[in-house]
Amino acid sequence: MIVLGIETSADSSSISLVDENGLLAEMVVGYSRRHIETVTPGIEALLRVVNIDISSIDGIAVDVGPGLFTGLRVGVATAKSLCYALGIKAVALGSLEVLAEGVLRAVRPGYLEAQRIGSLDQGVAHSGERGKEEEMQAGVPARQRTMTGSRHKVMATDCDAKSEGRQARDVYSPSPLHDWPLHDWIVVPVVDVKRGQLFWNTYVVDGTSGIVHLVAAGDPRLSSPRELVDSLIAATQSDGAQTKIFIAGSGVLDYSEEFIPLQAYGVTLGAPMLATPSAGVVASLGLKRFMMGQYEDYDKLIPQYAREPDAVVNWKRRDTGRPDIQPDIQPDTQMTTQVVS
Questions:
Q1: I need a labelling partner for 46 at 20 to 30 A (CA). Which of 109, 175, 280, 314 fits?
Q2: What is the pLDDT of residues 197-223, one digit of tens each?
Q3: Distance between CA atoms of residues 230 and 237, nearest Å
Q4: Does a structural domain hold residue 336?
Q5: Residue 232 three-state SS
Q6: Domain of 208: which CATH number?
Q7: pLDDT tens profile 162-188
Q8: Could you tell me if residue 306 is inside a domain?
Q9: How many domains does the chain have?
Q10: Which domain holds residue 131?
Q11: How far apart are CA 78 and CA 36, in angstroms?
């Protein structure tokens, strides 16, 4: 089964192809929010590289957000159009899940091995040179990869100085990650949804069913950077806390000054290369969903914005004369104010 992954929730757009044997190819096709003009040509280019006809695609996985409003609309519209034209199904994935999965694949050698054998206890810290190489590439932006772990080498296109400058804001906290037992991990993906708000959740590694995978520890939350920092500090100080917290995403980059003090509490901050969801992870997770029968009709794909668009907020402020109006939370996005546990 061949699955096309589409990732457009961040400044860059990326696409990928996977099958049952792993990643076929992945490509970053645009920076500076040029989603509209790069995604479709990028898909055509990727298919040419791997010498696969578009009719061979069996399913499409797409990141539905939260993320950039225009980017999400482009990604979802592209997925819908292709599904309709090809008569195939789709899988919708959230940005937080994709970020969390990418983080663990990148920084914890042994996670993919644990997934393969279905046991947390047997997932070793070092899974061999080839396995380690594949895992470490999972969290690296495709523009920096040579794709040695895949069957095709794909170079990214359309990089620019602006995105390079943002990537240079490194707030990574060194830590002996390889020694962390998988069952002790808490991954906190954080998406900056602008106007001083962050969308985030906590994920833990579960292997109780014989299938090793990340599961959400609660509902997604919308809060200020300060509120998130306070929650994480409280989690590290709770009685008997043995967990290892790893936080990453665009929110960590954009509010790095707020999060750097967390290092004193043992929280690890993800490097910039882990801040953007990967189309390779989107396609990989999508393939698993297809194999489990967890897919849907294309007309059910809906972008998850987490809050109102800026344009709507600006109109409200203008019409009411109230500059203090804040964005409403998107009705179909559940939020809580729970402390991480």
A1: 109
A2: 999 999 988 766 656 678 888 889 999
A3: 11
A4: no
A5: helix
A6: 3.30.420.40
A7: 333 333 334 444 445 556 666 778 899
A8: no
A9: 1
A10: 3-298
A11: 9
